[in-house]
Structures
1.
Amino acid sequence: MALFDVLAVVVDALDQSGIPHMVSGSVASARHGESRATQDIDIVIDPSREQILHFDALLGSAGWYVGDGLEALERRSQFNVIDSTSGWKVDLVIRRDRPFSIAEFARRRPTVIGGVATSIVTVEDSILSKLEWAKDSRSERQLRDVTSMIAQQRTSIDWDYVRSWADELGVRDLLDEVSRPPS
């Protein structure tokens, strides 16, 4: 199974379970910036307990490894599912219960990725999320993704939104370091 085949199966199971979702991580940043190889797919979800149970049953019955979604929901963390035939992994991240994560999820946009109808994080929110990841780790990969998205989307980015949340999230210095957005 190829990346987009895996995405199609997981998105279909999310849709059948009624779980709101958005593609994020490296798949989203590649969509907003430059393509790069990835080892997994990240999807932010906002499920109920019943929806998680339905989703787990759908993929489990199809032979997928399914992590503990109920524990992830309770802890507002993440779990993964793995296609047993291809080894592709999908990280399912429970939407955090904080103002930025709520706003980020509400701003997701419908799109088609590799023929799969889904939703995706906006470029602004992808930049902010990657800056947050990079804040403590100083991950070169995250910073390269941010630089790439800014280079590709500079004129369409809502800089007031990005600056405001960068200040709130404590990543403004890092944003200024990787880019000099227009005033």
2.
Amino acid sequence: MEFSQGATVSKTALTGTRVGPRFKQIFPGIEDFTRTYVGRTIVSNGVTHFGEDNFLYADSSFFRIFSFRWSKGPQCPPEP
């Protein structure tokens, strides 16, 4: 998307929130979609709280579309 604010022209990789659901309705080849947003949030494990500047919010379909190898830190419980 390209938009102007006065004399300043900006480009960004954003679309409205309705694009994915609508495209899935009208284009039979689209199997799924996911929307993402990076923002600030407070993360907590019930005891410790901290601010996270690059928190990724995503639809639940995110992990049906993308796969990641997870790494675990010292506070993760051992695998069964």
3.
Amino acid sequence: MRPALVAAVLVFVLVCVLACVLLAERRAGAPARAGALGGARLRAGPAPSPNLVVDTLNLTHWLRGGAEPLTPAAIVGAIDATAPALKRRYTGRLMYVLKDRESQFDDDSARDLYRQAAERNGVYVSVASRYADPPAESERPAAPEHSSKGRDDFYMSILAARYRCAVLTADKLRDFERFRATVPPFRVVEFAYWRRLPAQDYVRPSSTAYAKMRKPVTIHPSAYFSHGP
């Protein structure tokens, strides 16, 4: 091959290599430049979690305007009304959390309603229930505080930390810092849409396992729904 032809081929190859390098650099640099404001670059945040925890009692009150006492039927009605829309937005684990009534323990008929709601809507329904004879907790205050009834709020915080997601609630969770000191031990019955028998969890809020747990990020129900009558 003639020297002139060899030189031309080498120049052509070199030009092609340089063009490829410049194109790659331009593609790599485009997002950073597009995200620059005033000389500061915006970092792309983590993708929104596909999971969501729902403060079921709070959501039910909010949808109904807080006018009437809640019943298991009303709670299930709120799950039925909101699950389809939330599942379109959250494709992972949709978890409705509530607690048994302070005036009485939930009976089998109430729990069967929750089980059916979980199956019907393809969600998880967890009930934070009191012990009839709770384990002794020497550090509990003699006079129970309002925060001592927040077993459902505490369990929502556990799930939000476990699944790295937000909680849908209109509550500010102002009592969060007092939960570990005031909420007595409780047990959780979880109904899953794919499981016939419920699972159980046992929670002692004062455990050091929860010492570093942070208040979860919350989303107000108005982000997705409108008030009822």
